[in-house]
Amino acid sequence: MTALSAMTPCGEFRTSYRQDTTIFPTALSRNLMLAMVAVLCLVPLVADRYILDLMIRIGMLSIAALGLNILVGFTGQISIGHAVFFGFGAFASAWFVRHGVPVVAAIPLAGLATTVVGMVFGLPAARLKGLYLAIATLAAQFILEDFFARAQWFTGGVAGTITEYFSIFGFYFDTGERYFYVVLAYMVVMYVMAWNLMRSRDGRALVAIRDHYLSAEMMGINLTKYRTLSFGISSFYAGIGGALYAHYLLFVSVEAFNILFSIEFLGMIIIGGLGSVIGSLFGTIFMVMLPEVVQWGADALSGGWIDRTLRLSNSISFLREMVIGAVIILFLIFEPDGLAHRWRMIKAYWKLYPFSH
Amino acid sequence: MALAPLRGRLKTRTLMTDNGRSASGGATPRDAGPLFEARDVSLQFGGIRALSNVSFSIRTGELFSIIGPNGAGKTCMVNCISGRYRPTDGRVRFKGRDITDVPPNRRARLGIGRTFQNLALFGHMSVLDNIMVGRHHLLRNNFLTGAIYWWTGAQREELAHRRAVEDVIDFLEIQHVRKSTAGALPYGLRKRVELARAVALKPELILLDEPMAGMNLEEKEDMARYIVDLNEEWGMTVIMIEHDMGVVMDISHRVMVLDLGRKIAEGAPEAVLANPQVKRAYLGGTDAVPDQAA
């Protein structure tokens, strides 16, 4: 990994510190990323509703996953309650809209409200580490889940909450094709902000705390402040993701944000790559696509002898869970650095192709 | 028999003095009141007294070494200065201000930097980032201005400090590894990167906890040169813990000896080395040494 991250293509000369601190190592990689976003902008013109739905879900979840990665992957804290912050963002946004705030403003407001809640639950993080912190965040999961079920005024209780479409100046983003652009815009902004954070002072402080908190303290980093801040940033991302989710589905139910969902977020960042911004996206794509792929597989096999012996059509739901579990275990064994690492390896391979040594 | 190793070291010392510098030469410490002062510092862990009533003071510009056998309390003393431990008793003062109750993360801003005995780099970060973390207290951008990098001056600030960091990198001759992951470097280089990180802090007082432990002669000579340069050219006051007597005697202005948590000697290197109590602490035994009470 060392050698790979240090490797720049030959002929690539940097003559200023500015060139040496860019988000993307080369002009080509930056342009490819811009081209990728441009291509994504064209997707709604050709894709059907099913594909669009998947992509929108990937977009919303990847924002929240990035938040969790900032907390777990970059700061080295742990949280098994990320889904409730995602849920809190969804309910908060709906609540703001009910109180007359336009959806455009409600989404960032929901993000901020979630930040506050996240920081409150993150306060023990300043004192707890490892397993103890995991249990403390588990408490956050159950407390907030219970709060969702009981706080009629906020969530509508067990009946859930109905909310509105995203709109700007009377233009409604009421179809998947339109809402896709909202999610894409948020995603680009949130990812770029995370990249920037990681190349500036406070991002480095977070990573320093992860790698060696004692010497980080000697470097003048206030551990309490930054650990709490990390929870805040992570919750902000979760809140934004949740708010986008609310205005996509237009209905938020209290059961959605259970511990399984929290663990799915952890699965996303572990598979994607802890401590990698783009890895959060890879992991989300993987986790969203995996059940679909399993479904496709089951559909393709339907009617055949495998289907008859295993009764795939009946057992598909638990088969999916099993595959997800197996994949996480396999990833932990064979690719602990996640898809982001695999991605770097692929890039390195092509950089040196056809002479791999 | 017991004295043989010490004499051997004395010989090295004389050798190094020839191409190094004599302890009394070099930067003459300015006489402007103590930069740092420890008053009756005691540190107790349960029933163990790690430090008992240690007092000393350091003038600006001094290169001050703390020596002593293993378990003498040297690192505990440095931890009291850097704030990792709070003395059970006594006060520590820096630039005339009582800093006993100042948390460690605030001491960087006051002007105290340190390295660790066991390497404490940020293993997964690049060398550059490691050293940039040293600039933390000098940088003003935060998570909000940092996240929108280009329009808040964060970029300008980062680049300006990158330049300062490059100066440190040049000084310590680690240009070739600046992009490497710190944890993957060999031991000697990691020690140097750690020193670079502490230097990047721009401290007035730098605490070096065994900067030469586990190094070969060549690396030690390099490191000794860096420390002397830090002291003379960068104007940093240095407190160093070191076991290599040759180096200690050669480059220190003054030396303090701790044994079992008590200060048993302080003064010019030659005087300290001649002190019978010091010999006893290091070598044990009583036969070759005059009676302590006498």
Structure characterization notes:
The complex is a heterodimer of chains A (357) and B (294). Chain A is globular. In chain A, a hairpin with a 2-residue loop joins strand 2 (166-168) and strand 3. The two termini of chain A are 15 Å apart. In chain A, helix 3 (49-74) packs antiparallel against helix 11. The longest helix of chain A has 27 residues, at 223-249. Chain A has helices at residues 2-6, 27-46, 49-74, 82-98, 103-122, 130-150, 152-155, 176-198, 201-211, 213-218, 223-249, 259-272, 277-301, 305-310, 312-334, 338-352, and strands at residues 161-162, 166-168, 171-173, 251-252. Chain A is built from 16 helices and four strands. Helices cover 74% and strands 3% of the residues of chain A. With 294 residues, chain B is α/β, with parallel strands linked by helices. Chain B has two domains: 1-111 and 203-294, 3-Layer(aba) Sandwich (Rossmann fold), CATH 3.40.50.300; 126-200, no CATH class. In chain B, 39% of the residues lie in helices and 21% in strands. In chain B, the strands form two sheets. A six-stranded mixed beta sheet of chain B has the order 6-7-8-3-9-10, with helices on both faces. Chain B is globular and about 65 Å long. Mean pLDDT of chain B is 85; it is low at 1-30. The A-B interface holds A 1-2, 5-6, 17-18, 20-21, 193-194, 196-197, 199-205, 207-208, 210-212, 214-223, 229, 233, 275 and B 82, 84, 103-109, 113-114, 116, 120-126, 129, 132-137, 139, 141-143, 145-149, 154-155, 158-159, 162-163, 166, 179-181, 184, 197, 201.
Summarize the entry for a quick read.
Chain A is built from 16 helices and 4 strands. With 357 residues, chain A is an all-alpha fold. Chain A has one domain.
Topology (SSEs and partners):
The complex is a heterodimer of chains A (357) and B (294).
Chain A (H helix, E strand, L loop, with lengths): L1 H5 L20 H20 L2 H26 L7 H17 L4 H20 L7 H21 L1 H4 L5 E2 L3 E3 L2 E3 L2 H23 L2 H11 L1 H6 L4 H27 L1 E2 L6 H14 L4 H25 L3 H6 L1 H23 L3 H15 L5
Chain B lengths: L3 H16 L14 E12 L2 E12 L3 E5 L6 H9 L6 E6 L2 E2 L5 H7 L1 E3 L12 H8 L8 H5 L6 H19 L14 H14 L4 E5 L7 H16 L4 E5 L3 H7 L2 E6 L2 E6 L1 H6 L1 H8 L11
Parallel strand pairs in B: 3-8, 3-9, 6-7, 7-8
Antiparallel strand pairs in B: 1-2, 1-4, 4-5, 9-10
